[in-house]
Amino acid sequence: MSRATYTPVNQHSAAPDELVKSFDAAIKRLAEINATEGVSPVLEVIEAARALMFTDEGLEVLYQRVPAIEAAGCFGGSDWDYPQTLVPSLAVRTIRHGEPVVTLVESLSQIRLLAVAKGHYVHPSISAEHAQHFLAQVLAMNLDMVVSDLQESDRLRPDGIGFAVQGLYHFLLQHLGYENLLEDLVAEVWRILAQRPVQVDGVKQMVTQIAVCLQKPDALGGDVGDDALQLIHAVFSPTEGCREDPGFDVYAERLAQMDDATLLQEAIAFAKAIHSTGLVSPYMPGFIRYLRSRWNDLIPTALGLSHTGADAFHCYPALIHTLIDEALFPETSQCAYGLAMMLERGILYAPPVAPSLWRQIRLSLCEAAAEKIVAVFGRSRSPECFLLADVLNVLGRPLGVGQGNYPTCQSTRALSMWAYNMPAELLRILAWAARDDEVVMRFEGNSISSRDLGAGLASEPPVDVDAVSLLTVPHLDRIYFEMGRRSAGRGEDPHKWVNSAFHGDHVGHGFRIAVDIFTGSLKDFEGFIRDFYSAYHPFYNGNIPVINPQPAGIAVTDSATRFLGWHAITIQRLALDPDEVMRVYFFNPNNDSGQNWGQGIVTSTQGHGELYGEASLPVAEFASRLYVFHYDPLEKGEPGDIPNDDVKQAMHLAQNSWALGRLGL
Hints:
The chain has helices spanning 16-37, 43-50, 56-64, 66-71, 88-97, 100-117, 128-141, 144-147, 152-155, 161-176, 182-193, 201-214, 226-236, 248-257, 260-277, 283-294, 299-302, 307-315, 317-327, 335-345, 353-362, 367-377, 383-396, 409-421, 423-436, 467-487, 495-503, 525-536, 619-623, 644-655, and strands at 440-443, 446-449, 510-513, 550-557, 563-576, 582-587, 615-618, 626-631. By secondary structure, it is α+β, with helices and mostly antiparallel strands. A hairpin with a 5-residue loop joins strand 5 (563-576) and strand 6. It is globular, with a radius of gyration of 27 Å.
């Protein structure tokens, strides 16, 4: 389970020993002042603690000093001085949405409760059991921080405080284990898997922890049911041949002794496991590779292919066999699912795709690209192998690509759109980045080379993403930033020109923005809402579906409706859900599309007709957070035909959330 780290900009020059000495000195001064004056000037302590919050070593220092923190009166005069009265649900709000200083105090309090729960510190007003139950509940409410990457609202918090909170929960889980949290953890894992992300290493490690906990006779999680066992079996023992997780060598010996009927049952079991969970067991590559020499025609069954996927497999046997031989190993087991889903999509029938994959197979990586992949994925396989495996993953699950903990939503959105709609274009750009360490794009008749540009929005390369993103996003980010620079000063939002040049000519030439770029105030907001409905809603645009996914921008809010910033998404389609409610289905590149935007607006990722990787909302709720979109001006209905009630609902939700205060600017 990878975790992004954050280093406060003013802490680069301070050595760890200096940070510890600074904190100890602050605690000593606080204790001396409280002993004589009876007051609690804790800000110096909080600031000194902040610098230690971003590493496990720093958190351990704070944990070891819990007695000194308490003795100095750090919590004096506050609710935290009475830990027996603290409420887990309120603590969650404080640590996720509070001001940075308040969040840091809550973090120190939870470190204190960890010491109480582990018996390393005795508090006069709260028992170890009470502290254990409190932390179990708080952790259960924040499992998303350890199962997946940070949400947008956490990542955008000032001074990187969201990263400190994520580190705290990893620290707490490391010390407490998962026994009290299994039921919630299992549910959270299934929620993430329902979105079929490309990156599942963190989820697999969570499944490993679940398996470990279930092996403990004194586990506190109780019976978590078949859902947990299904996850465990999918990773460690999906078939009868590997039911007790025997190891690769033993499994290989068993395969050699199986008759055809037994192999068929193994293939069916593997297929069921990968398609029901999205997880691939490390045993599956060994099985598929064994079939390569004994029974190639059984591979489509093992991959769980329908007639569509099986036809593609049999139309391109040399290509598929080579992809398996070059990319599928235990370290890259997930690409078996990526391969299956790529075949199911039928994209090999597009003439440029198969030749592009052959180019990728034969591609030699430049030194810079190889070093990046080795730094993230290691040396157990070649950099070319890791990259080819993630090519299959991205092409198979274009809506499972995530931006990691980096502000590169536009570039990640582009990768998703190309993988979904223009796979040959994605493979061309990847070949440039991997072979030449350069990407060249055209903008208004001129070439822009990433090699000639400085840093874009991301100051450092991403490290918690797939290999395709790892190599391409830094180049794309710089080019996108440069296109924006060249479009500045035209009196309109640069996205009007940048999006079509960057993503492709399939982007609608019509452009609408809800705010004035100079004042930030709303601009003809009613007309904006009506134009969106008339361009996209099937009831008002002549029942024309979304032909090509379109880039759009949303105003991100948290559960308290506070505005957090602008964010890039893709509008995939509009359709009626099973309850006959018209919904917008969209792709959000921020790693987890399940979000609470306040006002009862909670994005759905399953249960309302979503395809894997899509989020959805009823049209009015989506429109209330929309601030920019593209459309085809030749395929647009009459804005005046949109019902007033729908328009007013969207406007009301916006004006009482992110647009509050923008009405009279």
